[in-house]
Write a structure and sequence with these properties.
The chain is α/β, with parallel strands linked by helices and 369 residues long. It folds into two domains: 2-171 and 353-367, Rossmann fold (3-Layer(aba) Sandwich), CATH 3.40.50; 190-346, Glycogen Phosphorylase B (Rossmann fold). The protein is built from 16 helices and 13 strands. α1 packs parallel to α2 (40-49) and α1 crosses α7. The protein is globular and about 60 Å long.
Length: 369
């Protein structure tokens, strides 16, 4: 059985890597890895970390690329690989432009499609943009819907996908975390080694969503700044996104406090190990909503809606929006009320047991029997 995995961004690489490693173990499977390199600089460290050497690297990244350019370059490159390799199944993960282009290229050549992390929905086609559209478009074309949770399965059933094509697997991000987090991990950045994680309450912040740039991001950062000024034992680490607009707001609002550390983006391994050490997380990222609960870290989600409601329902995360007072009040509550903090920290992680990759590959193998 020939299975081709396609990915192009750092989050996809992280979540697809455990599947690639599982495919490599199976004697009855020929594994083909194709990367689009939609995000070149951020993808390469993931490939190195998991020791994955792609069979095909389309290297489509160009500075200032538009969604149309990413889609057309990926589609043309993938078509050539599919025609050459003729895979039985093509696997895509998540909701990027690479995912949509990969599913479409496979569909055009009548190759079966497996959608890893299927069934996530925010309910707003333009938020997150373009991810919500990409995941829906990929779903329409897919033969196997690998849903991380029951909630994701229900989303697919509501859209009339056949139940026999939906499989609840857990999320492969949990598999990946098991691979990289170490008790004695040493960071390359000395600042992170020197933080007092035991006696100080370190807050990890990430914010980069295009819909948050402007006033919403100013609200988020101002609330964080005010909390740091109020609580002398609180420090903040913010690995800043490369987007200059994000950096401008961060430097303007957060740059003057010596307990707020604005640092360069972290690769996956140091980011995962940092997550395991901090007190709590404030983020508009999708992945951190899944990863934080693995370590028992409360996650405050600074978005107006989320396609990951399981964490909210389980109590590991809270959707606080982007208004100043909402974030300030929730941070204040978690820092001043130990029982509220413990309630979130001890909630059960809804995203799986770290065996999602094994389940996915088993399903694919069994489908051929």
């Amino acid at each position: 059985m020939k299975i081709m995995t396609v990915f192009g961004t750092r989050p996809e690489g992280i979540k697809m890597a455990p599947i690639v490693k599982e495919l490599e173990k199976r004697k009855n499977i020929e594994s083909i890895v194709c990367v689009t390199a939609q995000h070149r600089e951020m993808l390469d460290p993931v490939l190195n970390l998991f020791n994955i050497k792609p069979d095909y690297d389309l290297n489509i990244f160009k500075p200032g690329q538009t969604l149309t350019e990413i889609t057309t370059r990926a589609l043309q490159g993938l078509e050539e690989v599919i025609l050459k390799e003729k895979p039985d199944v093509l696997l895509v993960q998540g909701d990027t432009t690479t995912v949509f282009a990969g599913a479409l290229a496979a569909f055009y050549h009548r190759v079966k499609i497996g959608h890893v992390e299927a069934g996530l929905r925010s309910g707003n086609l333009y938020s997150p943009y373009p991810e919500e559209a990409n995941r829906k478009l990929a779903g329409i074309l897919s033969d196997f819907h690998f849903a991380p949770t029951e909630s994701n399965r229900q989303n697919l059933l509501k859209e009339d996908y056949p139940d026999e094509k939906i499989f609840i697997t857990g999320n492969t991000v949990i598999d990946a975390l098991k691979y990289v987090v170490k008790e004695d991990y040493i960071f390359e950045l000395d600042l992170l080694n020197n933080l007092d994680y035991k006696n100080k309450r370190v807050i990890l912040v990430t914010s980069h969503r295009s819909e948050n740039i402007g006033k919403p991001m100013e609200n988020i950062f101002t609330a964080i700044k005010d909390i740091v000024e109020e609580y002398k034992d609180v420090e903040v680490v913010f690995p800043m996104h490369l987007n200059p607009k994000v950096r401008d707001i961060a430097n303007r609002v957060l740059g003057s406090n010596n307990r707020i550390h604005l640092i360069e983006p972290l690769d996956y391994e140091p980011m995962a190990n940092l997550m395991s050490k901090v007190h709590l997380i404030v983020t508009d990222s999708g992945g951190l909503q899944e990863e934080g609960p693995t370590f028992g870290k409360p996650v405050l989600v600074v978005r107006e809606e989320t396609e990951r409601p399981e964490g909210i329902e389980a109590g590991t995360a809270k959707l606080v929006g982007t208004k100043y007072e909402n974030l300030y009040n929730e941070l204040n509550l978690l820092l001043s009320n130990e029982s509220e903090y413990n309630k979130m920290a001890n909630a059960v992680n809804p995203y799986g047991d770290g065996k999602a990759s094994e389940k996915i590959v088993d399903i694919l193998v069994n489908s051929e029997e």
